[in-house]
Design goal:
- The complex is a heterodimer of chains A (228) and B (248).
- With 228 residues, chain A is α/β, with parallel strands linked by helices.
- Chain A folds into two domains: 57 residues, no CATH class; 158 residues, no CATH class.
- In chain A, a hairpin with a 2-residue loop joins strand 6 and strand 7.
- Chain B has a domain of 151 residues.
- Helices cover 70% and strands 7% of the residues of chain B.
- Chain B contains nine helices and three strands, in the order ααββαααβαααα.
- In chain B, strand 1 and strand 2 form a beta hairpin.
- Chain B is globular.
- The chains are: A alpha/beta (228), B mainly alpha (248).
- At the A-B interface, helix 1, helix 2, strand 1, strand 8 and helix 4 of A face helix 2, strand 1, strand 2, helix 3 and helix 4 of B.
- Chain A: Keywords: Membrane, Transmembrane, Transmembrane helix.
């Protein structure tokens, strides 16, 4: 529907231009006649019909079906995702899944959380102290499942443990271009299909890192303790 | 009593058949318009981008909306063209009056709109197939393309095109009534747009409301009723206006 609004200024300008040209044309303007135009028209219509049939038989391995009504649904969930992480209940939350898990041995009394990324912020790493000191730091990465995943190779944040420092490594910058095959406004007007604006939250897995440290070990840095 | 009885319906049918052949050039311009629109649409009919700092996504939309818009323009301009004196005079090859001439014109515009509507609607699939085959995309996001939606899309496209045809036709007739309308109509449209853009004076016709009246209708049946009533009014107005004109 919004497509039509985009075209309205252009439509009005061309309509006026066409109107003026014809009206001022002293009645000499006629349709251009091309020999064998009927064959061209028949061929054109035939091609379009064949193309339409072929479209419905295309292999679907490249297609990711989207429901436009679901677009934008993840954006409000990300805040809830972080507050649930703060409460330590992520494992039971809908749309959230455990993406990766690491385990490191720790000997010191403190572990510093550092990152190579400016975008790394408070609210990404949540810490919890275990009931006992087993000398193991457990790191679990949870992700909010996107509306649809467009890049299967996108790993997201990674974690390393070096010199008693827990290092959160930002993913390398990647760009992803995709086409959206949408219906025309003359269809969406009646099907109620939305504009289909895909936001980053629809395709990106929002991640948080849950760190479980042995009793007596303190995490320092940009960390929020669960239920603190 | 005459040797040959003149039947209005027969005259309309003959004129319509004649116009289908004589105005075949209109379909040439339709073909050119649609191919041009398809070429314009190859780069996408819309786009969007978003980023979180690490992942940058950019999407390109593909559909036949631009082709449909171009087809509406074609219908509008072609309708004006067939009201010009050169085309009106063609009708006098037959035993005719203004009414039969108008009705055969309306039939021609209906046939042209049906052809234009179907081809405009299907051209969206051509664009999508080109994007699928020739652009190197790893993944394609697709909204539901039900086969039944082709029927809905083609029907509403035909009605939109007919609406523009009727609008062009009545404007063309007005210009034939008086050349003053060549100035008055653009002045009205442009003046109204300026009034609409400003806030102090309300426009004579709120184009946004007019457009909304049609595009906000979510029921295909009600949309068809709205458009049918409008085109009936516009074509009737055209016939009524020309009744007051001289014969040739």
């Amino acid at each position: 529907m919004s497509d039509l609004f985009v075209f309205i200024p252009l439509i009005i300008i061309v309509m006026l231009a066409g109107f003026i040209v014809i009206a001022m044309g002293k009645n000499s303007i006629r349709f251009v006649k091309v020999p064998h135009i009927r064959w061209f028209l028949t061929g054109y219509l035939s091609i379009l019909i064949i193309v339409t049939v072929v479209f419905y038989f295309l292999p679907e391995d490249k297609f990711a079906s989207i429901d436009p009504s679901e677009l934008g649904a993840r954006e409000p969930l990300q805040q809830e995702f972080r507050s649930t992480a703060h409460e330590g209940n992520l494992s039971e939350t809908e749309h959230v899944y455990m993406k990766e898990k690491w385990e490191f041995s720790s000997e010191g009394k403190t572990v510093q959380v550092v990152s190579d990324s400016e975008a790394f912020d408070r609210g990404m790493v949540f810490a919890e102290t275990k009931d006992s000191n087993d000398g193991k730091i457990e790191v679990i990465k949870y992700a909010l499942r996107p509306t649809f995943k467009i890049d299967e190779d996108y790993e997201g944040f990674q974690v390393e443990f070096v010199d008693n420092k827990l290092k959160v490594i930002a993913p390398t910058q990647t760009s992803f271009e995709y086409p959206i095959f949408q219906n025309e406004f003359t269809i969406t007007q009646f099907t109620g299909e939305q504009g289909g604006h895909v936001s980053i939250y629809d395709v990106l897995e929002i991640e948080v890192i849950h760190v479980r440290v042995p009793k007596g070990v303190e995490l320092i840095g940009e960390v929020l303790y669960v239920n603190d | 009593m005459y040797l040959t009885e003149v039947n209005t319906l027969q005259i309309i049918r003959k004129q319509y058949q004649f116009k289908l052949k004589a105005y075949v050039g209109a379909f040439t311009s339709l073909l050119v318009m649609q191919v041009t629109a398809i070429l314009f649409s190859l780069g996408g009919t819309g786009g969007m981008s978003s980023s979180d700092g690490y992942l940058y996504i950019s999407g390109t939309q593909y559909n036949g909306s631009i082709v449909i818009a171009f087809t509406m323009l074609w219908a509008f301009i072609s309708s004006i063209l067939i009201t010009t004196k050169a085309y009106r005079n063609d009708d006098f090859t037959f035993v005719t009056n203004r009414f039969t001439s108008h009705v055969s014109n309306i039939y021609f515009l209906l046939a042209a709109s049906i052809f234009g509507g179907i081809t405009a609607m299907l051209s969206g699939y051509l664009l999508k197939l080109i994007a699928y085959l020739f652009y190197n995309y790893d993944a394609i996001l697709v909204t539901e393309h039900a086969i039944s939606s082709i029927l809905v899309g083609a029907t509403s496209t035909i009605f939109y095109i007919l609406l523009f045809s009727a609008l062009g036709y009545v404007i063309g007739v007005l210009v034939q009534l008086s050349k003053l309308f060549i100035i008055l109509i653009p002045a009205f449209v442009i003046g109204n747009l300026f009034l609409q853009a400003g806030e102090r004076v309300s426009p004579l016709v709120d184009f946004n409301k007019v457009v909304h009246f049609y595009i906000s209708e979510s029921s295909i049946l009600l949309f068809m009723v709205k458009v049918s009533v409008t085109i009936l009014v516009l074509f009737s107005l055209s016939i009524f206006i020309t009744n007051r004109m001289e014969v040739k």
